[in-house]
Amino acid sequence: MNLVFLGPPGSGKGTQADRLAQRTGMSHLSTGDMLRAAVKAGTELGKTAEGFMTRGELVPDDLLIAIIKEKIDSGELNTGFILDGFPRTIPQAKSLRRMLEENDANLDCAILFEVSDEEVVKRLSGRWYCPVCNEGYNYPMKLPREEGRCDKDGADLKRRSDDQPEVVQNRLEVYKKQTQPIEDYYREESKLVVIDGEQPPDQVFTSLLEHVS
Ligand code: AP5
After folding, report:
1. 127 in catalytic set
2. N or C: which terminal CB in the chain sees fewer CB atoms within 10 Å?
């Protein structure tokens, strides 16, 4: 099964993709995680992407399409994938379709996690992560034992640079302008499944399993 996860920033795409990948063995490919790793490693891609990401804007289509093409052509997604954060524009959605066709593959459905702007702001203002082991925390659902420190290695917890309130507002606007049109693109292909992303994580996962099974 090949799936795309859609939804505004903080809608739970990464959380649910991790859980589904663990449950099913599908590959979970997060373009946001890949870009953050490139920024951390100081690669050419990372240097180009960093400014766009810090401002909450989209990284140019050609760079993202090249990343996904390499993954699809390599065959490493052949056992089924969850694309988390791609596509984000109509050109990306059309390229994905073409790349899959060229590899005799197909997208089964696009899952949209619907969450209000207020909930997005609340979630992202409470999100922290460990820069050493990448463990995620959030207030108030998952608190570290000692405030501001990772339970696993004691490192000081950090916030993503794009989780600052003014950047979150921009990410929401960018989502509405550039990414929301692909909801209609998949709706017209009868591939869009909408899930209430404001339920607690376990209930969102149950809804997700009902749809994909
Ligand atoms: P990316 O990392 O993809 O960011 P995003 O889409 O804005 O999504 P997030 O990672 O913030 O949220 P999420 O929906 O995964 O939610 P999560 O599970 O983490 O992209 C970052 C940047 O990279 C972009 O802005 C862009 O610059 C660039 N980029 C990436 N892909 C690109 C592309 N294709 N084209 C161009 N540019 C691209 O959950 C969020 C928080 O909420 C967590 O703390 C979590 O614990 C909590 N939470 C999750 N579910 C629930 C729940 N049900 N109830 C309560 N809390 C919950």
Report:
1. yes
2. C
Q: What is the pTM of this model?
A: 0.95
**For ligand 1, atom 56, which residue shows the shortest CA distance?**
123
Q: What is the pLDDT of residues 59-99, one digit of tens each?
A: 999 999 999 999 998 988 888 999 999 999 999 999 999 99
How is the chain split into domains, by residue range? 2-115+166-212
Question: 2-115+166-212 has which fold?
Answer: Rossmann fold (3.40.50)
The beta strand positions in 86-161, using DSSP E, are 109-114, 127-129, 136-138
Q: Could you give the CA distance from residue 167 to residue 183 in angstroms, rounded to a whole number?
A: 23
Known catalytic residue: 98? Answer: no
Tell me: the pLDDT tens digits for 10-34? 999 999 999 999 999 999 999 999 9
- Our answer to whether residue 176 is catalytic in this structure is no
Average pLDDT, the chain: 95
Would the pLDDT of 139 be above 90? no
Indicate which residue of 13, 19, 36, 71 is catalytic: 13
Reading the block at residue 99, the tokens are: 């790349």
At 163, which amino acid appears?
A: D
